[in-house]
Every structure is written in C-alpha cells, then in structure tokens.
Amino acid sequence: xxxxxxxxxxxxxxxxxxxxxxxxxxxxxxxxxxxxxxxxxxxxxxxxxxxxxxxxxxxxxxxxxxxxxxxxxxxxxxxxxxxxxxxxxxxxxxxxxxxxxxxxxxxxxxxxxxxxxxxxxxxxxxxxxxxxxxxxxxxxxxxxxxxxxxxxxxxxxxxxxxxxxxxxxxxxxxxxxxxxxxxxxxxxxxxxxxxxxxxxxxxxxxxxxxxxxxxxxxxxxxxxxxxxxxxxxxxxxxxxxxxxxxxxxxxxxxxxxxxxxxxxxxxxxxxxxxxxxxxxxxx
Length: 283
Hints:
Layout: H1 8-11, E1 18-23, H2 26-42, E2 45-51, H3 57-67, H4 75-79, E3 80-84, H5 85-89, H6 97-113, E4 118-124, H7 133-147, E5 152-159, H8 165-173, E6 178-182, E7 185-189, E8 202-205, E9 214-216, E10 219-221, E11 223-224, H9 234-238, E12 244-247, E13 250-253, H10 264-268, E14 274-275, E15 278-281
Parallel strand pairs: 1-5, 1-6, 2-3, 2-4, 4-5
Antiparallel strand pairs: 6-7, 8-15, 9-10, 11-14, 12-13
Helix pairs in contact: 2-3, 6-7
C-alpha cells in the first residue's frame, strides 16, 4: 500500500484523533480501512466499521480477511463489528446527531467494560443529502468534544463525487487530518497552518532557475502545471491573497500577485497542478 509522507499516522491514529478520508472508489476505501483496523486489532481496541451500505459489508470483510495474516484472521469474528451506515446514522429514517453521539459513548462503555482499551471506528457519511449538510457539519464539530477526551479514534469517510468545493473545505475544518488519493498514492494535508507559532512559521521559498517558476515583481510565486489542471477551482477558493484565477479553464497566477507561500493551494489540489516548494526554518 503506497503511503506518502506521514499518512501512516492516519493508519496508526491514537485515541482522541478524529480524521477523515475522501475516497474515489470503494476498493480504495476498503484497503485503507483494512490497514486502519488491523492496527486496532493489534492494540486491544474494539473496532466498528460503518460501511457505505449493507451491500458493502461483504466486500469490506473480504478485503480485511485477505489483508490480514493468517494468525490474525480469527480476530474478525469477535473484535470487529460491521454496521450499515443507514442503520447507524439514520435510525427511524432521519439523522439525529445527539443520538448518534450517545451511541458512540455507549459503544465505548461496552468496550471498556468488556476488557478493551477503547474503540477504533470508521463511519461512512456518503448517505447525506444537501439539506443534511449543515446539521452534519454541526455533528462533526460535536464529535470532537466526545472523541478528544476519550479512548476513541475515528476515521470518517466521504465519497469525493458527492462533495463540492465548499463542502471539502468544511470537512477540512472539522478534522485533524484529511487524506485523499491521487496518482495511486494517499496524500495527507493538515489544515492547521494558522496554529503554528510565529517563532517557527518562517517560510523560505526554495530558489530555482527553472522556467516553470513564475516571478512577479521579484517575488517567487507558485509553480503551475496547466496540463495537469482540471479547472476545479479548489486552489482559488483557499487562496487568501486572491493570487490565483482560471484562464481558459486552467489555473494561472495574477501578475500583481502577493503570494504569502502558505501552501494551501498545493495541499488541496487533487491533480498536482500547483506547487509551493519551501523549507521551514526557525526565527
């Protein structure tokens, strides 16, 4: 399984972590979660896999069984619970956040009373409709208050095809880490840049003579790869300096751009069409 950077911290998430995976295919999600839950099985955690639907449980079980070594496969029977997302999140036909939060707390109490150190959970939220979004994001915010002080680790999952630009930004806001897959590898971005202290937030762009780099008024601006751009506009949404725009449906940098090298554009780009090479130094 190809992992880039410290994406492995998602697989080995600790109690109190509330992360998210934005996935392109069910197979990608199953493989990722199989490794995520293997860590839980190895560390005396009761595992709860809330699948995208009842018809997905069979594939999830099969993937987990195929990826686990023979010596661990027996753990699937008693140490992991598979639940259809509709049965877990939409009991009675509607989404009731407070009841869902109570379910997580009840699951934790059951697990610790039965000899487990805590619970390791993943819940798929691709069932949402547009009208559900505000209350779903309010739920995601409240999840943090339940998970952070508890012996729970959670990895939410959203199918990429259901998310618009603003929704992706909402998801980023409510999770510690968010990962997505591109070019065959999982990539992680941490939307916590503004929490860095001034003493360490000193950015030194890597200088280069490459013609791929643009110079605006003597200031180095991001590297642009128009041939990779699909015109989604995500980087424009996150650019606080209004330095980016679409030209012929391809990303471009404004001539008067004042880039502060925050790298948010690079982090959110799903195709690798923009990059901000840099190094972080101490003040």
